[in-house]
Amino acid sequence: MQALLAPVVEALGYECWGIEFLSQGRHSLLRVYIDHADGILIDDCEKVSRQISGVLDVEDPISSEYTLEVSSPGMDRPLFTLEQFVRCAGEQVKIRLRSPFEGRRNFQGLLRGVEDQDVVVLVDDHEYLLPIDLIDKANIIPRFD
Questions:
Q1: Cα(27)–Cα(120) distance, rounded to whole angstroms?
Q2: pLDDT score of 25
Q3: Which CATH number applies to 2-71: 3.50.50.60, 2.60.120.600, 3.30.1380.10, 3.30.300.70?
Q4: Spatial CA neighbour of 79 closest among 95, 65, 68, 64
Q5: What is the pLDDT of residue 111?
Q6: Structural domain spans, the chain
Q7: Dihedral (C-alpha) 78, 105, 132, 144: value to the nearest 10 degrees?
Q8: Cys staple from 84: which of 48, 73, 79, 143, with CB 3.0 to 4.6 Å?
């Protein structure tokens, strides 16, 4: 899906931050996160949504019913790629794994960065190297300074 939709988003001048497909029974949700240095407004989401809808109608990559949602990643932005983990080093994060790692699935702490294919997070003075392929969901924890 990334290969199909990212070029459309980027051609409009936005960054395709990530794509989620959430299967919810008979009706699913396709969520596309877009970003821009100047921020994202509702008009930006509408513009991208119209273009993506056209591509999805032609290519028809999803056989079931779904809703398309285009939005900003927001303050609690999800992290999808190693590059994003590198860019967000120094932020507080919440990470959920697909399966336990060192006896746990949930980690909340300081994102240190990336080493090889591992995300480095400091939790209670212990540094964990979490394999990227084990990460189910990761989000920035917003700061309100």
A1: 36
A2: 79
A3: 3.30.300.70
A4: 95
A5: 98
A6: 2-71, 82-140
A7: 30
A8: 79
What angle, rounded to 10 degrees, do the helices at 42-59 and 2-11 form?
A: 140
**Confidence (pLDDT) at 3:** 94
Please state which CATH class domain 82-140 belongs to. mainly beta
Per-residue confidence (pLDDT) for residue 145, from 0 to 100: 77
What's the confidence (pLDDT) of residue 72? Answer: 97
Query: How far apart are alpha carbons 101 and 134 in whole angstroms?
Result: 8
pTM: 0.90
What is the Cα–Cα distance from 70 to 31, expressed in whole angstroms?
6
pLDDT along the chain (145 residues), means of 10: 96 97 88 97 98 95 91 96 97 97 96 97 97 97 90
* Lookup: tokens for 122: 């400091």
